[in-house]
Design a protein that fits this description.
heterotrimer; A alpha/beta (412); B alpha+beta (130); C alpha+beta (488); B: CPE0013-like fold; 2 domains; three-stranded antiparallel beta sheet; elongated; disordered C terminus; C: 488 residues; alpha+beta; D-Amino Acid Oxidase, Chain A, domain 2; eight-stranded mixed beta sheet; 12 helices; 30% helix
Chain lengths: 412, 130, 488
Amino acid sequence: MIEREIDIAIIGGGPAGLSAAIAAKKSGIDNILLIERSESLGGILNQCIHEGFGIEIFKEALTGPEYMQRFIDKVEQLKIPCMLNSMVLDINKKKDIIVCSPEGLIKVNAKAIVLAMGCRERTRGNICIPGTRPSGVYTAGCAQNLINLKNYMVGKRVVILGSGDIGLIMARRLKLEGAEVLAVVEILPYSSGLPRNVVQCLEDYDIPLYLGHTVVNIRGRKRVEEVVIAKVDEKWRPIKGTEKRIECDTLLLSVGLIPENELSKMAGISLDSVTYGSRVNENLETNVKGIFACGNVLHVHDLVDYVTLEAELAGNSAADFVRGELRNESNIKVTAGNGVRYVLPHLISGKNDAKFSLRVMCPDRNRKIVVRDGKKILKKIPKMRVNPSEMIQFNIKKEYLEDVKELTIEIE
Amino acid sequence: MKKKFICIICPNGCEIEVKYSEGEIEKISGNLCEKGLDYVKKELFSPERGLTSSVNLKNGLLPLVSVKASKPIPKEKIFALMDEIADIEVKAPVKIGDIIVKDILGTGADIMATKNVDRKGNFLYQKKEN
Amino acid sequence: MVVYDALIIGGGVVGCSIARELSRCKINALLVEKECDVAMGTSGSNSGVAHAGFYVQPGTLKAETNIKGHRMLPGLCKELSVPYEEIGKLVVAKTEDEIDHLKKLKENGDKNGTRDLEIIYREKVKELEPNIEAVAALYSPTSGILDPFELTIALAENALKNGVKFSLNTEVMGISQKNGRFLVKTNKKGFESKIVINSAGLYSDEISEMVGIDRYKIYPCRGEYHILDKNKSALINHLIYPVPPKDLGGLGVHLTPTVDGNIMIGPSAEYIQEMDVSNTLDVMDTLLKEAKEMLPEISRRDFIRSFAGIRPKLIPQGSKSPADFVIEEDPEVNNFINLVGIESPGLTSAPAIAEKVVEIIKKKKKFKKNRKFNPKRKAPVCFSKLSDQEKSELIKKNPDYGHIVCRCETVTRQEIIDALNNPLNVKSIDGIKRRCRTGTGRCQGGFCTPKIVEIMEELYHPSIDDLTLKGNNSRLFIGRTKDLRKND
C-alpha cells in the first residue's frame, strides 16, 4: 500500500471541505490533501441550481454551482492537492486514513484531519411507510441529482412528503419542468421550511400543503399508482378515518438529513445524539485530538454561508494544531436548556470570544436567548422570530466568560 | 380591497397587509423596512420572480447546464419561458456567465449559464490531481 | 419448432434447482419465468434459512426433502460460490411452561434425523447469547443461513452455462396438449415440450388448472419483515426464534442474521385475499414490539428497509394440520410434473426436490450424461470482503475496482459492471442490487442509484423503458428532464 505523510487531511470536497482547505493553506500549511469520493469537487452544491447562496459572504444571491466555483477556483489557484473518485474506507484514533481510489489503496498518515463528509437523506425504510415497494419513490436529494445532473425526469404526477426547504425547492423545480405536484405533506402543524419558500414554491403554483398529515400507504405493483395520506395526532400517529387517496406516479421524501458519521465512529469520536454529529469544542475539535469537524457532518445547516465560516474555523484550528499552537483547554460545558434543541460547541475555554450555533424547538415570535451560568444570567439576546428551520448564531465576548463554570443556553 | 402578503425579500418574512383599489395603494402596514414596501407594490401590480433551471447541453461532461435569468421575470411569463428553453440545446464548453438566450421573450432578461462544463473527451471521466 | 424435452415454469429457487439438476443430463430444457429476473416471488422474500428439520412433521415430503436438502446445501453452496454460514439456531423459552414445547420440537427433530439438537438452560443460553433472556432453549447447531437470491441466481447461471435455456419476461398464458406434447402459450411465443414442470410457486394452482388439474388452490399467507442497520449486528450470534404461538399460520417473529451482516425481524403471518406484498402499519408495530421483547436495544430508528413475501399455502386459515408438499407427476396428466404448495422449508428443500423431480424424469427416458457439465460457478468479486493486499492487487489490474460507487456497502464500479454483464442479462436496478449489494445499505440507494444509472448509460445507452427498478412497467423515469416541456 502506498503511504503518504500529510499534515492536514480533509475528508470531503464539498463547501465545508473546500473552505477548510483554503483556510488551512492560507494560514501557512502546504501539506494538505483533500479527499473527495465523487468525480468532481463541490459536493451537494453541484446539484443545487437554485439561488440563495452567498448572501452573507459575497453579498450576492448566487446559485449553488456559482458559489462552489468560487471556492474551486481558489483551491486551484492555491494549488491544494485533491484526490477525486477516492473513498475513505477507514480512519483510526491515530489519524491513519485508508483511502480507496483508482490509483490503489493509499494509507494517509495525517497530523490533523478535518471531517467534512456532509450528510445522507433519511429513507422510506427508516420512517417505515407501509405499502408496496414500487419504482417512483425517491428521496428529494436523489431526485434533485437525477433531474439536475443526470437529465432524468423522475415522474409526471408527484406527491412530496416533507415541507422542509429541500421538499419545497423540489416542488418548484418539478412544477417548472412541467410535472404536476399534487400535494406537499407535512407531519408538523407548520412548514419546516422558510415562509418565503412556502410562498415562492407552493403558493405561487397553487400546490396544496397538508399540515399535520403524513403518508400512510404507498400503492402500486410496479410503479407508484397512488399514495394515501392521513391526519396525525400529537404523537404523530395516523388518525383512522382521515385517510385521503392521491393518485400519482411519484413520491418524493424530504424527511430529514443525517450527518454521515460512520467514519467518525471508526475513529472513536463521540457523537451528539440530537445532532448526530460530533461533540466538539470551540475549535471544532472532537474528543480525538487533531480531528476536527465542520459543515453538515457536524450539524445540518440551512445557509451554506455559515458552512463556509464554520469550515474556515475548522481549517484554521487544524493548522494551529499542526503547528502546536492550539492552546486553551475547553472545559466549560455548554448545555441546551428549555426551548433549545441543540447548541454548539459543546465545550468552550472561556479564554476566547465564543461563537454559538443553535436551533430552537418550536417556531415563535418575540423571544429572548438567555445565556446563563447556573442562576447567573450572562446575556439576553432578543429575537423577533425564532424558527427550528433557521440556525441562530451569536457571539459572547470573552469578558463575559470570566470565571464561568458552565453555560446553559435557553429560550424565554 | 384588502390583501395579505408574506414578503420574501429577507428571512424576516413580514406579514404585510395592503388596502388598494384600481391600481392604487391606499394603505400598507406590517413591514419592517422600505424593501417590504417595494416588494408589495411590485407583487400587487406586476409580480416578478427569479428563475433558475437547466438547459440541454451537447457534447459536455454533463448532459445539462444550469442556468438563471439575469433579472426577475414577470410571474405570468414563467411557464412560457420554461417552454421556450426546453427546446434549446447548447454546445459545450460553457462557462459561468455565458449568455444562452438574450432578452428572452422580450422580458429584458438574459438566460445565463451558472456552471462551467467542459467538452467531453475520449476518456470516461476526468481525473484532477494537482 | 424446437421440441423441448422439459420445460420448467417458474424461476424460483425450486425451478432453478431443477434446471441445474437437469443440466447434468444431455437434455434440451427451457425455463420460462414471467418476471425480469429469477427469485422474484417467494424465493426472493423469505428468511434465507437452511432449516435443520425439527419443525416439519415426520413422514412427510416436507421432512424428507428438508433433511436431505439441509445436508446438500453446504456442499452445493460451495460449488456455486454462494456464501453459507452454519450459524446455529436457538428456539428460546421465556417461561418454564414453554420448555415442554422445546422438548416436543427436539423429539420431532430426532425423529426426522436432525443432528445435534440439544436443550440448554439459562447459563448456556447466556453464554451463547449475552443479550437474550431465556429460561431454556432448543439449540440446533446445524441450522444455517444463506442469501436466497444469490443461491437462485447461482443455480440459474450454472444451469445456463451447462446448457439449459432461460426465457425471462415470459408469462405462461395457456397450455394445451397435442400428440403427447404440451403446447405452452406465453406472452412472447409458443413452446413445445414433452415434459412440463410446474414450479410456479404462488401461481402453481393456476398453471395446474391450465392442464385440467383443479384440485389445488393456493391460499396466500403474507409474511412481513424488517431489516436492521448493520450497526446492530453484534446483538445476536445465532438465529433466535421464540416458542411459536399456538394458532399462527407461520413460525412467529424471528431474529434472523443474514450472511451480509444485517439482522432481519419477522416474518409475520397473515392470510390475504390478493397477492399483495405490502407492509402494513399494524404488523410493522407488532413486529417491532415483539422484537423489542427479545432485544430491548432495538428501536424503529434501526430499521433500514421493510419488505413482505407470500407463502403459497395449500390450506386455508384455521386448518388443523399443515399441508404437505405436492411433488409428483400428476396421476391424470402424463408428463406434467406438479410442484404445489412449496412454502417453508422450500428453500432448504429445493436441492432435494430437484433430485426427486429429475428422478421422475429419468424414469421416463434415459438421458445421456452431460459430459460438459461443470458443477462449479466462479465467485463474483466481493471487494469489501477482500484483504488490503487483495484489494491493492485487484485495483492494479483494473482501476475500476478502486472506484467505489456504493458508499454504504463499499461496492466498486467494476463490480457493478460485472453485475450488469450477468449471464441472464438482467439489467434492472433490483437485479444489480441482488448481484452486488448496491442499495442494500442504510441510504437504500439514495447515493448510488444516480451513479448506477450513469454507468448503464455509458455502457448500454438504454432507452427510458430499459431503465427499470424490477422489469416491465417499473420504469425509474418518465423521460428526460426537459421532456415534459418540450414542444414536439
